[in-house]
Every structure is written in C-alpha cells, then in structure tokens.
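Standup notes
- HV: blocked on the assembly model, inputs below
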Amino acid sequence: MRRMTARPANAHQARLLRLLRDGGPNSRAQLGDQVDLSRSKLAVEVDRLLETELVVADGLAASRGGRRSHNIRLNPHLRFLGVDIGATSVDVAVTNAELEILGHINQPMDVREGPVAVFEQVLSMATKLKASGLAEGFDGAGIGVPGPVRFPEGVPVAPPIMPGWDGFPVREALSQDLGCPVMVDNDVNLMAMGEQHAGVARTVHDFLVVKIGTGIGCGIVVGGEVYRGTTGSAGDIGHIQAVPDGRPCACGNRGCLEAHFSGAALAWDATEAAQQQLSAELAGRLEANGTLSAVDVAAAAAAGDATSLDLIREGGNRTGQVIAGLVSFFNPGLVVIGGGVTGLGHTLLAAIRTQVYRGSLPLATGNLPIVLGELGPTAGVIGGARLISDHLFSPA
Amino acid sequence: MRRMTARPANAHQARLLRLLRDGGPNSRAQLGDQVDLSRSKLAVEVDRLLETELVVADGLAASRGGRRSHNIRLNPHLRFLGVDIGATSVDVAVTNAELEILGHINQPMDVREGPVAVFEQVLSMATKLKASGLAEGFDGAGIGVPGPVRFPEGVPVAPPIMPGWDGFPVREALSQDLGCPVMVDNDVNLMAMGEQHAGVARTVHDFLVVKIGTGIGCGIVVGGEVYRGTTGSAGDIGHIQAVPDGRPCACGNRGCLEAHFSGAALAWDATEAAQQQLSAELAGRLEANGTLSAVDVAAAAAAGDATSLDLIREGGNRTGQVIAGLVSFFNPGLVVIGGGVTGLGHTLLAAIRTQVYRGSLPLATGNLPIVLGELGPTAGVIGGARLISDHLFSPA
DNA sequence: CTACTTTTTCCACTCACAGGACAAAGAGCG
DNA sequence: CGCTCTTTGTCCTGTGAGTGGAAAAAGTAG
C-alpha cells in the first residue's frame, strides 16, 4: 500500500486530526461542537482532509433527535511504530492512528552493543510485525533512547550508559531505513507522553514521571508539553546526591541516587545480602539462577522476605527524599512512578509517599497524587507513537 | 491627567506595543522590518494605536538613504508602579512605559504587620512619588509578595512568613485603592522577570533565579514564561532538605536549606559567633549596633574576618548542593543569584559554583553561567512593571 | 537639476470565515 | 400515514483581514 505522506494544511486541520486521534471516530456534528468553527468552514476542512485520505468516511452516526450525522475517522490503514530502547531490552510496537497498540514485541538486548547492532534488531522486529499482517508499512516512528537527546536533530548527546551512541544520527538513519518520518527522544520523556495520552496523566498539565529502571530518570511536563532543558538533559535526576559521602558512582561523584537505588543497585545489594546469608529467600534464588535482578527482589518481597522489603523501603526512602525536593521546586499536579521496578509496587510507593508528604510543604503536597504508572511496559511505545503523531498532525 | 485605559485590540497591536516597550522609540519602517506584516496592514494598526493614545508620534527618524521615516513611541505620560514587598522592607518605584525607573523609594517595614498596615505604607509611598512630580496617576501596578500566590486571582495562599495575608484579596484591594489594573506575583518571580527584561537573562529562555534574602526562593522561567506550578508554590526551595537531621526549621522539619543559610540564619550564626568571641570583628559590630544582620557579615567578610568568610562559604556550599540538584533536574541555560545577600558577592558565588560544577553532570554544566543578578534591589520593581505591562499589552 | 532610494498612502484584489436560507433526513405524535 | 419539530449538511452572500502593486512624497548623492 502507498503510505500517506500528506500533512494538515492549517491549524484547523491539525486540530481535527488530534481530536480524531484522541477521541476516536466522531461525527461531523460532534466535531463541530468541539472546535468552534462555523458549519461551513468545518465542512470545507473536513472535505479537504477526506481528499488527503488522512481521514475516511465511516458510516452514519446514531441520531441525536434529528437527521443522522456522517461519521468520520482517521484512516484505519495508518500505522505508527513506537520503539523504546532500554538499557537491557527493546520494545517495539505498531499502533493505528488512534495510537492503539496492534502488536507489541519485547526482546532482551544490550544498548552497549552500539547503534548499528541495535537498529538491526529493531528493524528485524519491525519486519516481524509487518509479516504478521499488522502493517504494510509505517507512516511514522517515534524512538526512545536511554539518554539525553538533542531533540530537534534527533541525536543522542554524551549518553553515559550508551557510549558509542554519542552523535549517532538516529533520526536520519532510521528515517532512511524505515522510509518514514522519525522523531527521537529520551525514553523517560516518551513514558511521560504515554501516560499523558493513555494513562494516569490524561487530565493534568504539569506533572513529573519518575522512571526507575536500570537507572533513574524523570520526565517533566509543563503546560502539557514535555520540557527538555537547554541541552536536552533535563530530568537527569539519577545523579542528584541522595547520600552525603555515599557510595561511589560511575559518574565520578559519591552518593548519587542511582548508586543507591535503581535496578542495577538493587540487584547488587540483593546479591550481597544473599552471599552474606542475610536472606534465605534471596540466597535460594541466587543459587537457582546464578544471578539476581530487581525482579528477584520483587518476588522475594512478595513472598514476605524481610531483607528484600528492607532494601525496597530504604531505596524508596532515598528516592522519596529526592522527589520531595523536586516537588518543592516544581510544584507538580501529579507524580507518576514507573519503570522496570514497578513490580516492587506498594512497598516502594508507600516509602516514597511518606518521604514526600513529610519533606515538602503542605501547599505543594496538599492535593498531590503520587501513583504508579498505568501502562507498564507499553507507556514508552505509546509515547513514541504519540510523539510522531504530534509531529505529523501539526501544520506543515 | 486622564489615565489611559485602552488595550490593544489584537495580537498585532500587542506585538507592536511590546516592541516599543523593549526597544524604545522606533520608526514605522523599522517596526515593519520586525513584524512581518504588509506595509498597508502595519499602517492601519499603527494608526489605530495612535488613536488610542497608547502611542504617540515622535518626530522624524534619521534617513536611511531616502525619505525620512516618522518615529513613534509609547505615550510618555504612561506610568507603571512596581511594588516589591519583602519580609523586612518595601520597594516602590515608578516607571514609564519603557519600564525605565523614574523614581524609587525603599523603606523598612515588617510584613507581619499585615496587609492593611503594609498597603497603607505602600499607598503613602506611591503618593510621595506622585507628589514629586513623577506621575499624575498610574496606568497599572505590579506587586510582589514574599510567598506563594494564586496567580489568576492575585491572592496569597498559605504564606509561611506572612500569616494574616492568607486569602487577602491583594489584587482586588490595591486595584480599588490605586484606581488601575493590578497584578500580583511572588517576589522571586518578579525578580526573574526583572532580570529577564533588563538584566543578565535578556537572551535566555530557560533559567533559574535564586533569591537569598530573609528566606530562600527560586524563580523558574520556562520558554520565556514564568512557571508558577499547580498551586503557585513552584520555586519554594527554602525547605528542601540540605542537611540530613540538621537544624530544626520553622516549617517543622529538620535541615531545611533556609534554616542553614539565609539572611535570618546568617544573622543568627554571626550573633552566636560574636557572643562566643570567635570573631573580634563581629563582636565589635554587635557591641556597636546591639544586633547583627547579613549586612554586618558581608562587611566583616570584606574586612577579612575569617569567621564571616567561613559562614559565607559554608552557606554557599549548602546552597550550591541544592542548586546542583536543581540544575541536574531542570537543565537551565543560566542561573542567577540575587537578593539581599548579594553583598556577600564573590565568596558566595565561588562556593556555589564549586558545588554545582562538581555535583552536576558535564552535559548540564558545560555551558552554564552562574552569575550574580545585575539589577540589585531594582530587579523586583522592574519585574513588577514588566508583569503589569505584559498584562496590559496583550489583546483584551 | 537629475537620478536613485526609501517611506508612505491608496487601491484593487484575494481569501478566510461567519451566518442565514434552505434542503435532506430523521424522530415523535396523533 | 401525514404533520410538525429537530438535527444535519449544503449553498451562497456579505464582511473584514490582509496582500501586493502603483504612485506620490520626501529624501540623498552627485
């Protein structure tokens, strides 16, 4: 099938496309209620969108007491690709234009193998999705990488955990390979956009998303827009000092939050505890697998292992202290906790909440929900689809 | 004189007014170069502005090689009032429409006396400025108060250091008394706007302003706009924990930044040191005045007093650590240090810089200037004038 | 005084858009 | 089934914003 390359010609068309994306199929009359345009103007713009084939007619709507209205919807053949490159695995998903996931693959992988190897894998995963009949091609792709990105160019800059990616023209390269427009962003920002589009942050304009995975990062949304900072490194909270003169960190400092609590730190602590026979549960798992990860700690904690619960609580306290500072500073309307360690669930959340509610002033915490992300591993890929659709559904 | 009450009728007019405000008198042709409107359209809008008397003709411009252009400028009779209410003093200033200060008064005062007493004083200061012939009336006023403000309504909310102001309708009341439009904001946000308009932050879009006065606060500017947070308490960094299990703070916690370093804390520390005879310099000053303030510490430090220098350095270190965290999180393009203690100058700045450059990642600090504010005590009042002019110079 | 520039005004033309009139399509009711 | 009322979609005209060319006005440089 020929891919759609059309773009909305003006702000009205962009507005309509986004309404259809976020609200699904809709009647012309209902659209009219939402956009404050005269019926004539609306009809003209809708007709033009129909001509571009970005939207298609979709039968008749139910009557609202009079003549039935004609439904329209985004072209059901449109396909977006969401790619979430983590430190140790990749998620790739296909969505339709309404950003609903049609197919989703997750595979282990090590970013440190470098961009060429990783993109080979991403492309083969995309091909697999195509082969299963979910898509004949892609109209756009949004990619998340675990490090800072110079956003306009779509190029990673000085990423600590992925040397070899520095300056690699991700956007350019993938756009060539996939044959469609591509946007690149930090993985945490993608997660924030995902939760904003389809998760817990749908109604909030200013919020933070704290992602605790292999590292720790934070997505910042201001007035509904992702804030990326001057050099694209905003939200890099993993290296805020959480413990004075604490553990040495890979960054050269001591006491960084990430050195004390993150997927990696948790695994290290658990291994330590197992080897010192502090926890039979963890020791058994280490014996069985040869190695421990955050998932093991989560499982042990669920089984009631005291050592694991302590590790989680302590980590939650440290994280909560840092978040308390951010809440004082940023005064968000919502804080979302997500990432690989959400399996730690309520123990973690309780520890964080305690610290934040204690450490920030009532005015900032008074009406501040602190919740787990709703979308789990799909937040990133949905965010990717959202990123590229925001780009494509804006005036050319 | 009859006050101007007109407002720009559309975005073009607002744009032109702001250009005249920021760039001073300008010829019609030069304006045309900046606004991307057709000559005819520009002429129409300028004529309408002339009709409203918001702008006036101002003779002929120098020739650029052909016919000389007519200059226009903002009405020179326009007057804005900037009011900066601090914890222990008030600044009131009159500006023209180009936000140049025509007169400035500073008086000691205690906010805790409550809004009624304070506004009585503010009004008498404003009257004094009028009496000196600088203004016949005011076209707008911008007020800064040392605490969180619900911005749209212009009402302080739960301000810790100014009980009695909670919920007081500052905007409403002053608008009545002054007979002109009024906008109210946090004093730190005003300072940020001042430095943005006429100080060090003129060319930066994302920056932080840290004000160290009686307390400590931070102004946040995102994309050129002040960010106020969900409940108006964004930037309230005085109660971020800087020292684990540190000094008790008025807020009920321990180790708040403000408890360890601020005008008040510094005065307390200095008095302590003087009484314990750790510093002859400070003891002498205590003897002479009966009390010590941050100004005394600054003077003693300038005279080479080791104890005072240590106090400043230690405070700078604590503040720097907190700012380092904010820099990692926010990735600003500039950090401005200001407020009453800027007299501490380079000792303070050096300590802060050391901590930030050490405690944040290179990508965030690489090209990050950390500088003292340029405007000193006028930043707040200029910010106030800027606040109200932004409001008045926007489409009605 | 002449040739060339720049600024300003004037005017005709295009385009976006609103809103009314009217036709089409359906619901509800007797 | 016919009648009335409601909603939806189309057509058409009026209005106001805005553009761009032509020409007048006001200079400069020789």
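- HV (later): unblocked. The mean pLDDT of chain A is 93. The domain at 80-196+378-392 of chain A is CATH 3.30.420.40 (Nucleotidyltransferase; domain 5).
- Next: hand off to the docking folks.
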